[in-house]
Amino acid sequence: MDTLLQDLRYALRTLRRSPGFALVAVLTLALGIGLNTAIFSVVNGVLLRPLPFRDPDRLVRLHHLHPEKAPQGGPFSPQDFDDLQAGARGFQSLAAYLHVPGETVINLTGAGGEPRNLQAAYVSKEFFSTLGVTAARGRTLRPDENVPGADRVAVLSDAFWRSRFSSDPSIVGRTLTMEGKPFTVVGVMPARFTFPGRTAEVWVPMSLVGEENIPHQRGLRWMEVVGRLSPGTTPRAALGSVDAVLARLAQEHGDTNEGWGRAKLETLHDALVGPVRPALLVLLGTVALVLLVACANLANLLLARASAREREIAIRTALGAGRGRLVRQLLTESAVLALLGGGLGLALAGSGVRALLALSAGTIPRPDEVGIDGRVAVYALLLSLATAVLFGLVPAVRAARGATAETLRDGGRGGTERRGGGTRAALVLAQTAAAMVLLV
Questions:
Q1: How many CB atoms lie within 10 A of CB 319?
Q2: Mean pLDDT of 26-45
């Protein structure tokens, strides 16, 4: 530990004597580490963080398949959904919802502000229990409220409650006029709950979708379906049960269900983030290349700088320093640079995340889950230490290997530069190749 502290103090003194080099190195690393940390924070929030539901690994999304009309999958009709609930095995529960941004709207009047259209999600009685969520204030919808005559109840989103009602704690039990009729607010959902989409501002019973709105016919498919697998049931087994029910319906109702005898099942996590997964992974690979270019650049700078320090290193060797001790000292200097660059990069990553979310224009799912947290900070620290080894190891080994008595007799002119010429040329080629890939 004493030796480490001595190396750290010497590294800081050395960097203070070369402020230009230190500034260039720290800024270069801050750019590379900051970009990687910003993208990783998005990957962490969107792809790695579990959904904010109870036992999220058991939640699945069902899609009704047709080889021509819905090859990628589509919604179900109310009658098909009822038959699935009755006949499909392997599910603890199935739930349906209807939410189309800009189309499923409810007119709100007389609520302390200008009238406006609320983005509504119509949900079946099993919706909240299937997802395993509870309200942050009040409660969610009860099953007995999903019938005509008892369905004038609503659950508000956290964002709408805060923006329209200024986080009024007495909102539960208040009556709002929607579609010219009184609705009772029974709850407010947590801020992290945005399913089935960030645009949803109010959840109301599915029974409000009457025949006059959408005809309830087997041939009209408009219900999206989610399910919770029973403990111990595999997705394949559950899908097999669903396909068996749909195949039977295709035979029994050939006029409306011909060709609709199969379904697709995917985890709810994949359903929500699957479309953006390739783009995020490509971005993560892209910024990794940026960091590699930065490391190659710094390795070149350190090799060039080693020629200026050749005499100093030779003196240390003459005084008894071994090659391992010299490598450790030089790697300590690289680690100090990397940690300074990583600290600045972590600070820049916060702004980078905000810029990414703004530029994405709502295309990144789960944006509320994205941010700089403990996992992201640890990632930045480990990345900084890895880059210290990546750009510092080769220059340190070459500098220590060149520390000989001949250097003292030659006056320390050009030995390391001659020996490192091939390595520096290779690093320039690697930078150029990586930059070409990034440009393409």
A1: 7
A2: 92
The number of residues in the chain equals: 440
Distance, CA of 8 to CA of 341 (rounded, Å): 16
**Can you give the pTM of this predicted structure?**
0.78
Q: Which residues pair with 234 in a beta bridge?
A: none
Between the alpha carbon of residue 279 and those of residues 364, 369, 438, the distances in Å are 10, 18, 15
The number of C-alpha atoms within 13 Å of 23 and in the hemisphere containing its C-beta is 4
Q: What is the pLDDT of residues 231-274, one digit of tens each?
A: 999 999 999 999 999 999 999 999 999 999 999 999 999 998 88
Alpha-carbon span 235 to 405, nearest angstrom: 70
Residue in 138, 141, 124 with CA at minimum distance from that of residue 169: 138
State mean pLDDT over 207-219: 88
Instruction: Please state, in angstroms and rounded to a whole number, the distance separating the CA atoms of residues 90 and 129.
Output: 16
